[in-house]
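Hi L., both proteins are below.
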Amino acid sequence: MRYIMIRAALMILFFNSISFAQFYVKGNLDMGGKFELSYQGESEDVDVKNGINIGAEFLSRTKPIAFGGGAEIQIPRALKGSSEKFNFIPIYGTIRARLSADENHPYLAARLGYNLFQANSEFTGGGELDLTGGLFTAIGIGFETKMVFVELGYSINNGGVEIFGEELDAEYSRLTIGLGVKLNQ
């Protein structure tokens, strides 16, 4: 009985908090990407072809600072000059600061979370490499209207690559241009 009461209270809290949230769906174009592997002070980076992300976020309706969370899925992207493809799936907390009280307003955004790291068999050498997730960070500036927003940002996905018992640090950094739509007004 106690378990049922706790579960019911959590469900009420969850659905009550959702009613006070603003929901967004968004798409991003990633440009100018660099993929870097580093180990014991040595590093090598490779350019990455442009890629696309799709995602969703929820934000509190508080003003001028809103808090929330979100997730994105990167469509696998290739290293330039290669058939090796990879992607990250970040899950994050976000904060957005309005720079104006107007309905149409600029804002600053920051995101911090954890991401999963995935790649095709060409990237992992047919499974010889083990991939691990890591820290996700992003900052951006945007402009929001009643129904849509646009955002320019800089994002970094971190992860790890394990080969022969050694862990290499992986970092994917890039500029992003995003466009999003509010689902509830």
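That was the first. Here is the second:
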Amino acid sequence: MTRRAEALAARLREGVPTAAPAVAELVALLEALGEDAFDPDVTEPGHVTASGFVVFAGSVLLVRHGSLGRWMQPGGHVEPGDPDTEAAARREVAEETGVTALEPLGLLDVDVHPIPAGRGRPAHLHFDVRWAFRASDDRLATTAETVAVAWVPVRWAAKIDESVARPIRAMIAGSLVGPSAEVNP
């Protein structure tokens, strides 16, 4: 394995707050593919992506994804210049929302989800490494990659789907969302 793949596998073995079952799948992918696991052109079975769950004053930052047509956390492909998935998640948050002042809160979750065929690629899996951040302010900007960007109260965001709810529950349990996040998702 390469240094980036080894570092991620080692960090995953330390544990993830959601205790996501996908962790073992991602470690196996990293062991099998090494650096190729980060290549977006690798579609069998898929590749590593990174995303950020960003909180501010009891709300979580979500984007309306243009091609998938759903609300989700900002994220995307890991690029060759990204030293690790945390940096990739931070970059994706900035690119998709304009939010750049982020306090890192740590590794939060791993999710494996199917991506439909498109953009010249067959259907494949995204092995999404999810990081938690706290924003220092609530200023937002939409970009070409997003249809809409919004701060959504965690109690509502936790009801979107299990893929979004699981990490939000972990953030609430770890008191990462702030004092106004009294919810029972």
